[in-house]
Amino acid sequence: MCSINELSKGEFMNAANGKEWNWCSGFVLLILLALLWAGTAAADNLAAIRDFGISRSEPIDKSFFFHEGKYIEAPYVVERRGLDIYINDVLIVSGPEYPIYEYKVEQDPGDPPPSSSPFDSYPAGTDLRDVYWSKKWRYLYSHFDHETAKNMMLETYRKSSEIEDVSWSDMEDIVRLVHKDGRNRLVSLSLSGGGFALNPPRKEELLKRVQEEAAFHERRLGRDQLVFKKGGFTRVVRGRRAVKGLEVLLSDASDTDKLKALEEARLIRSGPKGELERWIVTDFQGSPQLAERFLKFKDGYRARPVIEDANKWLANMESMPAELAMQTPAEIALEGKSSVPDLTAPAEKEPNLLPPAVRPVGSQTGPTGWLVLGVCGIGAGGLGLLLGHLGKRRRSRQAAQ
What we know:
Helix content: 40-55%
Strand order of the largest sheet: 1-4-5-6
């Protein structure tokens, strides 16, 4: 085994430059880089939390949330930590850069470095905002008007020994650069956003944007639907399709059969476009809570149309004119309103104009006919009791007012 002390400074630098590499030096270098990255990330996160604080939503017990295929158990709490957004301690949105980068360039970077051009490649991890060409453009447009800055930048490109031709393209504020090896590149000199060197992001704007993002996720989780998220991809399924989707995912079928069933139900796309959604099946991880919640979700969805119809009927009854909803036929008759027939009087027999062959069963005497009349009578009686109950409830409410 080797230790950090056993690895000299010269060996470490050679290892970093690729001149000398063994498993020991490589391991130590990776550990140091990981610690450096973790320390920087943690410091940035702490700075954002210190300046913007932490906020959490109320627990949400609605949607079914899946992160990278794994079901996250409800209830869900959307949390903003500084400028990052979490759902149940799972990072779902990395916030904007903080502390805010210093875009303003006070001193002119001068002419291009020798053999430098916008075609240059840079080592991994290089912040391209620190590159000469970016700093030069930010200096120019922050110290001169836009037209003057553009023309000065064109002259800067022409000073590069690596660029053969510089010209305006057919698109506004877009420059075409031709490298001496024949490569072409389009470079934008547009300032549609005002330019960060002149209008850098402000702390309150960053916080507002992240707060709106967190509120959006709260609203999304507050609906009866499936939410699948992986990286920058999000798939939302609601309604009967959500019931069908969970039914398929929780089944014992193979991944191939599940994919086929979901494609046929149009829950995921087929063909090459569907490749971005296959992980919904292949990476699926359920839990006992998911199975339990699904049964309640499924039963509730089946009962929903009946409940909605009943609520609509009650709402219609509540909106009836007061004189009809509050008074029974007997009360109306006592007030002498002859327009309402007296229900206690014997009804006159209406002539049956249908031939015997097509008369309804209920119009004929016999056991079947009496049975139908009895059922209808019971139903009418029940409806009368319900109307009376609603009338009393309306009278009580009005008396209370």
